[in-house]
Amino acid sequence: MSTPLYSIPGAPLGADPGGASGPASPAGGTGPAGAAPAAPPPRTVAEVLASSQVEAVMDELDTDLVGLAPVKARIRDIAAMLVVDRLRAAHGLSAHAPSLHMCFTGNPGTGKTTVALRIAQILHRLGYVRRGHVVSVTRDDLVGQYIGHTAPKTKEVLRKAMGGVLFIDEAYWLYRPDNERDYGQEAIEILLQVMENQRDDLVVILAGYKDRMDTFFGSNPGMSSRIAHHIDFPDYSGAELLRIADRMLAASEYRFGEGARDAFEAYLDRRLEQPHFANARSVRNALDRARLRQASRLYADRTRELDARTLSTIEPPDILASRVFATPRP
Amino acid sequence: MMTNPTGRITQGQFSFLPDLTDAEIALQLDYGLRRGFAWSIEYTDDPHPRNTYWEMYGMPMFDLQDPAGLMVELRACRASFPQHYIRLMAFDSTRGVESIAMSFIVNRPAREPGFMLERQEVDGRSMRATIRGYAAERPEGERYGD
Fold this sequence. Notes:
Number of helices of chain B: 2
Oligomer: heterodimer
Strand order of the largest sheet of chain A: 2-3-4-1-5
Distance between the termini of chain B: 24 Å
Strand content of chain A: 5-15%
C-alpha cells in the first residue's frame, strides 16, 4: 500500500502504514508529547515536573496522608525514575516501558486504596497511563461462576481498565489452594498475560493482607516476578491516628470540645489492644458513633437553643460512652 | 466495471480512503469513546448492501475509557476471520439518537470481486435490475480465497 495522501490530526507522523506495531506505539508516543507537541524535549528535571505538574500531586500526597513514610519514599523513588526515563527518552537513550505493576500489602485501613488513586494521578501526569482512571475490583468481578464464564468476565474488566489502573482488592482470594477446580487460576493466567504483553496500556495494583499475599505469591511465582514494586503499608501509631481523627473531623466540620481529644486518645489506647482494629477505618467508625451520641445528647434537650458551635462540637461524654471503656482492661 | 471501479467495496466511513493503519483506527476509536459511544465489532462474508446486520464478534463494549482494549478484540477478530469483512460500529445511546453513529470497515478480503448487475426483462420490454455478489455464489465461509 502506498503512503496515504491525507493526514489525520493528532496522528503520529511517519506511522508505518502496515500498522504492525499496533496501537500501543501511537499512544506511547503521543502520551507524553501530546500535551505540548511543539515544545522542545525537556532537558532538566524541573522542566519535566513543570510540564507534568506531578509535583503538585506529590505534595498533596505528603500533606493529605498522615504517616506512611516508607510508602511515600517509595512513591517518590518511582516518580523520580519515571521523570529520569522521560529525560533519557529526550536524549534518545533506550527507555523501555518500565514495569509499573505494584503490590500493596498492609492491614486494613492503612490507606492502600487512597494511595492507589494518587498513584494513578501521578502516572497519568507523567504520561505512563493515558487516562488515569482507577477500576477497583475484587474476586467477584474477575472470576466467573461456571465453566467458560471467567475468561470473558476477566477480559471485560481488563478492557475497562485499559489506559488506567486496575486495582484488585483482596487479591489473594483469586487463588484458592483448597479447591483445585477453582476458576480463579484462569483469571490469574489471563491477568498475567495482559500484565506482560500490554504493560503500556495497563498498570495492575494488587492489594491485600501481608501474610495472605505472601501465601498467594508463594503459590503463584509468575505473579510475584511480574510485579516490580512490593510496597508494605505500616500500621499507624497512636499519634498518627489522632491526627487522622483531627482531619476527618475537620473535613466534616466537627471539632473536639474541651477534653474530648484526650478522651479520644484514651479511647484509641484501649481500642488498639482489642482485636479487629482497622486503623483509619476504625477511627472513622469511632467518630461516626461519637457523632451519633452527640446527636442524641442534643436531641434529648428539647428546649435548648443550639448554635453552630454546639452543633459542631464533640464533647468528652460522647466518646467516653463507648463500649470500649465499659470492658475492663486486662 | 462500473459497479466496482476501485475493486473495493465502499461502505461506511473512510471507505474511499486507503486502509486505515492500526494507529489511525485507534484514534478513531478514541474519538468515539470521548463522545461516549459504545463500540462493537461485526464481521461477514456477504457484504451485499442490503445485508444490514452482520455477525457480532462478542458483545458490544460499554464503559471503556481507552481504545487499547478494543484493539485487542479487533486483532483477535482479524486472527479468526482474516478473509472476512470486519467493521467497527459506534452506538450512540443519547436519548433521541439511539443508533449507530460511526461505522467503518477495518478488514477486507485480499480480492474483492464486487457485484454483478443482473437485468431481467419482464412484462414485455420492462426491466428489473438486481445486484448479486460474485463471491456470494459460494457457500458461507468459502467465499473469499483461502
